[in-house]
Write a structure and sequence with these properties.
This protein is mostly beta strands. The chain has 3 domains: about 270 residues, TolB, C-terminal domain (Neuraminidase); about 100 residues, Immunoglobulin-like; about 350 residues, TIM Barrel (Alpha-Beta Barrel), CATH 3.20.20.140. Helix content is about 10%, strand content about 40%. The protein is built from 8 helices and 55 strands. The strands form 11 sheets. It has a 17-stranded mixed β-sheet that branches. Helix 7 packs antiparallel against helix 8. The longest helix has 21 residues. It is globular.
Amino acid sequence: MFGAAATLVAGPSRFGFSDRIERHLFPEVTTGPSEPAWSPDGQWIAFSMQGDVWKVPAGGGEAVALTRGPAYYFEPAWSPDGRFIAFSMDTGGNLDIGMIASSGGDVTRLTETRDVEIEPTWSRDGQDVFFVGRGRGFDILKLRIADKTVTPVVADAGDQLQPAISPDGKTLAYVSPVSGKLGTGGIWTIPLDGAPGLQPRGTMVHYEESEYRMRPAWTPDGKAFLYVSDEMGSNDVAIVPAAGGNPVVLTNDLMGEFSPAISPDGRSFAFISNRTGPMTLHVAPMGGGPFGSWRAVNITARRPSVPSGRVRARVVDERGQALPARIHVKAADGRAYAPAGGFARVIAVTETHYFHAATGAFEIDVPAGSLEIEAVRGFEYVPSKVTVNVGAGATANATITLRRLVNAPSMGWYSGDTHAHDLHQGRFGLTHRTLFDQSLAEDLHVTNVLIHMDGTRLMGRWPDLTGQPSPLSTATHIMQFSEEFRGSLGHIGMLGLTQYILPLTGGAANTPYAQVASDTPYLDGARAQGGIAGFMHPYTGASQDPAAPNPSQWTGTLIPVDVALGKGDFYDVVSLYSDEAGSAEMYYRLLNCGFRLAATGGTDNFPDVWRDPPPGTDRTFVKVNGPLNLSSWMAAVKAGRTFGTTGPLVFLTVNGREPGDVLDLAASAPATVQVEAKVFSVAPVQRLEILTNGKVAATVKLDADVAWSQSGFVAKQDIQLPEGGWVAARVVGLSSRYVTDSYAFAQTTPVYVVRGGKPYVSQSDAKFLGDVVDAIWMRASRSAWRSDAERDAFKREIDQAKAVYLKLAGQ
């Protein structure tokens, strides 16, 4: 149906692993120090920053870069004799292990495979490097430096991560799953004095729900571990006995502390804090303490390994006024850079590095030579690129001018995101200001930030849901917090809430909410509060044969049940964690049964995570009546005056009516309707398609000139619609650097056409949806119900929905 454009890439997946692994486990480029490691003599602390490995005197001072581009370097680990530093490295093709002399020089590659290798640590005799690599999942492997032979050390079900060697070299600590428990696992130990090669699972020392952050570090006496705990609601450094026991939190701060590294004398530990936003390096006494007892390791100057300079840049509009924007840079060494203290990020589907310039102005230190700077601002400005020459020790200036592609607000259309998030276990210290600035730089007029629960962890901040826009909001850009319910049979977004609807989760294994949950309390509850509710990231695939699909692939969500019961206001046809083709197919089937849902877009982005796209990656354009505010924006969504998009803008009329409108025609009226669609796009698109009742009624090929054209492209078609039904438009294109989801796609809500007062219904689609409802119950019935009454109540909703589809199917 969609051709080559429908290549599913649900979320960030550069290496083919889950988005959770790629976001939280894999190392990241940071603008502040990350992953500290003490030199054996205690004089230096090595760390990664801006893609290089650096070292700084333990008391602070000038930081010295040891590595250089084009590769990126992370996770330094000193050899026991202090002569070398091992690290993980991103060569552009994969993640490998390498090492360098601690005084600098050339990098030696230790692994050169197509697998992912990360988290190196040295054996106590300095002959081997232990690291995490690919086995049955991620396993712990050992590399002999002399001949680069690799042998497995710990391999088991799930992932074995974050190896740490005991001070006597006889025991390995690591993180591994715990059966029946949430999170990435607990801390385990295993002796290393057995037969060489694969070792069985060891002994669990400590468990708590974790997210790739624990990183155990042995105390010099071998009697305890420092590790990162999230039990207090933020990441903190804690200590636990190596034989098991009760942990003690050492750094209980409101923000996060990460990556503890114990000094060789055992009197203190270094760690990373994000309390000011970007990562900063601190040292605390082994007894821990509050922020006031920490000592900042101040970096007074930076000495890069190559000649460098600075660029001072600003982004302006056509009148010369400063304009917040997203920035992509490529330096002379082929790497990306971000301003000191900024948030360096990656758009995973295109592997494009970026940062946000909240005021439109920024400064970056980069290697001397040619520097390419590109500014992007949402979907209504033409991206602009400049090249400047940066001299060694000099400062270059650059101005990037963005011109309007289209002024949608002048026509009453405002973009928004139905599904944005706040804190999500990232390591950047996200403030409300930074969160709002991301949306401002993306020109996102309405950002609905949804607080939710992942496992048993709150993603967001309880007090933020107030029912009022954030105080940071302006007359043109609004940010408001609300809620997402995450059930095992689909997720519900509730916009405009004044209070939480609890619990936040359903169907979460190994919790008190393990049974499947109905969506009804959430869909009805949002409306009762004056808000709206809809369906997040609906489907991840389309049926191969629309005439005879397999209903079992549609059972992961209650959408067909909810819609049959008259619930739900919007449907995110476009979303990062679903496929537009599959979601659109089900959307058309629901429309063909007479249900009316607004076509919307919601990103599901995690704004404190480095490997994630920006808010507004998938957005909803809404035509508002009167001034913009959250109420008028939500009212327009409920009325269906919308389109969802990953980049292209498409404005549709049918006999002069717009999306969401009903066109009443007499039975004797002409069989044709007049359709007009106008397309603007920041990205290349392939075709515009006019849809009637789920089928393509007309296709208009769009050439490359449509992208960035301020005049847009206008198509006018007379379309046959003798039975009535609905008419919508969609735009389809391939992936590009200006689409931060998988491919270019836009879908309008239909204009509903009623001929002779008789609504259109597809009996075959009604039968299909009835079969899907049956399959959903087959899946849900296996839940561990708390009571027969709850099971029966859920079944009644299933039966009511099935009855609706039977009636529509003429059965």
